[in-house]
Amino acid sequence: MEERARSCLLRSKATLEQDIKASYLMDHMVSDGVLTNEEESRVREQAAALLEVLLRKDNRAYISFYNALIRESYGDLANLLHSDLPLLSPEGERSFGILSEGGVPQRPVVFVSRPALLNLIREKLYRLQNTPGWVTVFGMAGSGKSVMAAEAVRDRALIKECFPGGVHWLSVGQCERADLLVRMQSLCFRLEQGQSSEASQRPPCSVEEAKERLRFLVLRRFPRSLLILDDVWDSSTLRSFDIQCRVLLTTRNRGLADSVSGTSFEVPVESGLDEEKALEILALYVNGKPHKLPEQARSIVSECKGSPLVVSLIGALLREFPDRWSYYLRQLQKKQFKRIRKSSSYDYEALDQAMDASLQVLEPEHQDLYRDLSIMQKDVKVPAKVLSVLWDLELEEVEDVLQEFVNKSLLFRDCNQRPYHYYLHDLQLDFLIEQNRDQIAELHKKLVRQYQKFYNERPPSPGDIDCSYWYRFLPYHMAKAGLSKELYSLMFSLDWVKEKAQFMGSAHLINDYVEYGEILDKENSEVRLQFQEFLSLNGHHLEQRPFPDIVQLALSQPACSEVYRQALMQAQKRASRGRLYLDWVNKNNQDSLSLLVMHPHQGSVYYAGFSKDGSKIASCGANKALRVFKTTSGEKLLELQAHDEDILCCSFSPDDRYIATCSSDRKVKVSVSVSVATLFEHEEQINHCQFTNTGRRVLLATCSNDKFTNTKLWNPNKPTSQNTMFGHMEPVNHCCFSPNDAYLATSSSDGTVKLFEVSSANEWKSIDVNSYFPESDDEIKAIVKCSTWSADGSRIICAARNAVFLWNFETSKKKAECNGHLSWVHCVQFSPDGSLLLSSSDDQTIRLWETNRVHTSSAAALKRDSDVLFFQSDVTIVAPDSRNRLQVQSTRDLIRCTCISRNALFVALGTESGTVQVLEVPSGKTSQTLTGHTRTVHHCQFTDDGETLVTSSEDTTVRVWKWRTGEYLVLEGHKEPVRKFHLLNNSTSSHLFSWSFDGTVKVNRTSNLECHKGAVLSCDVSSDRHLFATTSADRTAKVWSNASWEMTLLLKGHKDCVRSCRFSWDNKRLATGDDNGEIRLWSMLDGALLKICSRDTKDSMDSFHGGWVTDLQFSPDNRVLVSTGGYIKWWSVETGEALQTFYTMGANLKKIHVSADFTTFVTVDSIGILYVLKKVEGGSL
């Protein structure tokens, strides 16, 4: 820059800095090519920074700055610079004006750079440096093609290296041949300026002559120039410029360049800006900052998917009417495109005209086909096969039509999926719906009828490429078409439920029943609720692979349910063909308390929580992922890999915009949409985090395994903790604020819940939860895993082990409990209105409970220690309950075992204190009380004549009682508790066969066999009494001779404790089951492994059987084996394949009682529910 010009800038610097708005001036200077995009972004709106950049530049920058001041009405400031304007050399002058001379339009008043797109266009233009060719910039209407094409050539280096002959811009548009000739004449005239020949000044008379004239001018006068053709619509127009020159063209039709010769490059323009860029444009129009725009701004950007055209049109309108944010948002939402009218240099008067112009270039029959796309949904990609069904055309023909739509930017293609999927931009779809509003229902009906015609014999299968679309959206199209009868028939069909659940899971199905509930309820609201409840409670089973038998699952529904009715019909039909199905005959008095059961993670679910508005559930667990679901259906909304280790907790902020997570990696992170940031850290594992409930003063509470400072309060905007709560000396597992944020409740491994005042951090109250729990079988300490407040702040609910307990914290009394989880419960939480309760567990499920339906403390549930007597068609069951009752008899000691005599006149029960009672049936009168055992009685059994009772105990003894007189015989020898025994009866004598954790087996008092190094867990004797088998914690099973007591077979192969065994009735096989859920079948001839019965993959309990295999029973014909674990399974002995599975509500089944004809099965689960299962008639085993 000349010294005089520089001096003038320095003298005027203070005045200029005070008065100018840098952003307004920079647009002009970038257009003139004196400022780069990088410099513009560096300067931003700082006038001082702009002047510093100018002082380092040449004379052209001074002149451009002067001209910008004049254009922006800074005339008084321009006068300060006028007297010192420098002179430009001819070469400099030409470089400065090359874009203006070529007709390249200036930047729009509001401009936001798109660097990635800009660099891509320039990269393609550099490819034309040494050879003629074409660069096609294509995209849908209003995507910013023209603006970006003009911006791309505002690069001095690009022009100097590639196009020193100049840049020539021609706006083409939709034009007839006569209009095209006028445009070409204008371009010829511009290029011929400076020639003296009169012949050269005569306008060409035809398009062909104009084409030749342009060829000559480019070849002779502008050999290395760039011709920019803006908004080209058809190939015939483009061929008129096929003159072997360098061309940059903008178009909606991607395939135009295929009609001309020469090298061709493509640059696609995305249909929308990201939210940040779009908000920046709106902010520039209204002279504000993006973060200070009203909330409607984000909604406008979201509604139009960031379309540059729409954002610019609305921004320009808002410049005139800045209080109309809500109005223009409503117009977008109502599809009132005519109200969003021209306020810029765009070619069309309103948005709908811009859309319609694209359609008019299609052939009439293709316009009709495009109209059918009105039935598509936003953000849904459709395979061509669906449209092939709709249009009744060959797939290849449909793909050709769709390719034309794609080429004209009327449709988008997802090339990441094969076969390709197609979708509309939201604005295109909104326009189509508005244009065809009166025909929408008929168009949906057309699609449904075409589907029914095409799939009239069978539903779509996974092999059909359109399968996913039909299963997901067929109910939607039926609802939109008003085909209510077809929708009823579809949604109230167990076959449809099976097919869709197998392909897509249960969440989509549940969502369908919620979304179309109003329509379905007009037919039958009860049936809709029955199907919805069935899916809500069994959806986690339907996520398993292999896919469970949905008919068997449905047989567990109430007998009055339509789901059960359809299942029973199908079961009877299939049973006649040899399939096995079980009907739960006593289920009518069992109601599930869970409202929804989800299986969101592979691995334990450590936490699940409601959003503040109750519409979403966030969950996290051992798979290091954060997931968000719909509360109504369990449909997944978001998934993030937030931590490097297990995520132990997640919490919504008061406004639901953020989710905090904490992990065993000792970090607390906050997630916003798809981004994650680390805020705080502890010294040890962080177990829980939670935001305050209200937004008045946002705090985040965290608790950890730190020794003393294990509970802290944080301000999310500060790096250090706000306060620390002291009181727990063991790890704090959970913390939660009271509804008014006045108190913080903490749950600890020390068995207490403490309440702290948030303002002072002082302890207010402490509840000793451990003291209120009844003694458990294994005497595990009641570690309090979590707690939560009710909505009114009057109650606290806490979880310990696999149960959830409701407490009144003012009285410290347990009010209610709910059971159903199969393993430890990690978290519980009330919904915002208190009507629902959410719990998550190690069993990999989330359960949603109705608060007013959970068990009260007076509710009774059966224990698993039961006995069953089968007599003809009658089934007599005896079992103690959680209230310590046996039938009608009550006792102060906890009942641990029970049995019933063969004549069903007496029952015996053994207690924890060692007392044994014999009761009359059905009166419940005590006939005899037997004392002698000093510790818990584990097992009892009557002999066949009912006169002798045998018991085994924790005191290592077995006692044989003449119970009517109280006389007994003590059998000693075991060194550890005797858990169980067998009575072996034959025609001449009886033997007592017992085993113990000391690894020994005994027969009566005389024989003592040390058979295993580990505890003996089960024993069985062959029906011919020749052999007996033992299984152990040492992972082996052994077969022994009953006569010689020598081991005949050693069976190895199990990978865990062998928990159960059973001989087949023909004594040819032995079945063994282990704690890994695996069942093995062995030959008793040589000990060979015959079959392994197990699932293909482990289930939610990390087992092949939902837990330990606890009992095994063969059918009389030895063809079927039934087993218990976390659920009940029936197996084919010949093939080792599962024949059927019955999922119980609870888990950890202890044993199963089987009738002699193998048609009735009885068991009790871990939450005290009794199951009497009968084989569906017509089946054969």
Name its key features.
1181 residues, 31 helices, five-stranded parallel β-sheet, 29% strand, 28% helix, alpha+beta
How does this model look, in words?
This protein is α+β, with helices and mostly antiparallel strands and 1181 residues long. It is built from 31 helices and 65 strands. The strands form 17 sheets. The protein has a five-stranded parallel beta sheet, sandwiched between helices. Strands 27-28-29-30-34 form a five-stranded antiparallel beta sheet, with no helix packed on it. A four-stranded antiparallel beta sheet has the order 9-65-64-63, with no helix packed on it. A hairpin with a 5-residue loop joins strand 55 and strand 56 (1069-1074). It is elongated. The model is unreliable at 89-95, 342-346, 855-859 and 887-891 (pLDDT under 50). WD repeats lie at residues 640-670, 725-766, 818-859, 930-971, 1009-1041, 1051-1092. InterPro entries: APAF1_C, Apaf_helical, CARD, DEATH-like_dom_sf, NB-ARC, P-loop_NTPase, Quinoprotein_ADH-like_sf, WD40/YVTN_repeat-like_dom_sf. It holds the Pfam family CARD.
